Amino acid sequence: MLFENNEVALVTGASRGIGKSIALELAKNGADVILTYNGRESESNKVAEEIIKMNRRALVYKCNVANEEEVTKVIKSAAKEMGRLDILVNNAGIVQDGYIGMMSNEKWENVIQTNLNGCFYCCRQAVKTMIKFGNGGAIVNLSSTSGIVGQAGQVNYCASKGAIISLTKSLSKEVVKYNIRVNAVAPGFIMTDMTKATGMEIINKYIPHIPMGRIGLPEEVAKTVVFFASSNSSYITGKVLTVDGGMING
Ligand code: NAI
């Protein structure tokens, strides 16, 4: 068991995909989990039921990460209800692709607001809460290989995911004195609803560029997130780890 002191983790966008896998993997390793969702309450409740069956505590909160007030309120109340907050996983994210000539301000702003500003709002409140509890903590941010190497048709998404890496590095230096570590995981192609929306035809074109010759699984990202969330990475902060079957050199 990696988490032996009833550690509490908050995962954003935990109703499906990578977020759901992260929530389950954290619980499997002994953490209690605060699941936040934006639109899928019943799916989130099902994830919570699975966690409760593992004899861990689970709370479900509606929280749109793009809404600063909602984030502040939810993190404060959930941490109070659980009695502590040790881990934050900034997983919630969206894509709204388009080539630059067709990229409306709205698409640009929606993606930056959710992926980057949302991550900032959550980090800010979680850091305040962790400092208040005085037990240190770990923050894991979901970036993307696209944020490192770039991707045509995704300037908004890549800018948000690249900025998450800079945010991670800066914040890690700022909060190290409170025993809070901040790291990022950058997945490559992972089989989730977000990827499926891109279309299997496009995905299949990428497979020959993946040395492992396959798309990754949400559980493979979740295990890396749990590594950064646990004391197995106690001497690591400000780092980005790609989980991409060897796709990029980064
Ligand atoms: P997904 O679309 O299956 O799940 C994203 C989750 O975020 C959903 O539960 C959604 O409701 C939630 N969400 C979206 N906007 C939200 C908001 N404003 N407030 C709260 N929650 C919100 O996507 P997937 O694939 O599971 O992605 C999870 C994370 O991993 C994202 O940050 C994504 O950018 C990142 N990622 C995914 C990759 C992939 O290949 N699937 C590759 C690289 C990064």
Automatic annotation (TrEMBL):
Keywords: Lipid metabolism, NADP, Oxidoreductase, Steroid metabolism. Pfam families: adh_short_C2. It is an enzyme of class 1 (oxidoreductase). Its EC number is 1.1.1.100. One of its GO terms (molecular function) is 3-oxoacyl-[acyl-carrier-protein] reductase (NADPH) activity. Residues 7-188 form the Ketoreductase domain. The keyword Transcription does not apply. SMART domains: PKS_KR. One of its GO terms (biological process) is steroid metabolic process. Coiled coil: none annotated. Signal peptide: none annotated. Belongs to the short-chain dehydrogenases/reductases (SDR) family. This is 3-oxoacyl-[acyl-carrier-protein] reductase FabG. It comes from Clostridium felsineum.
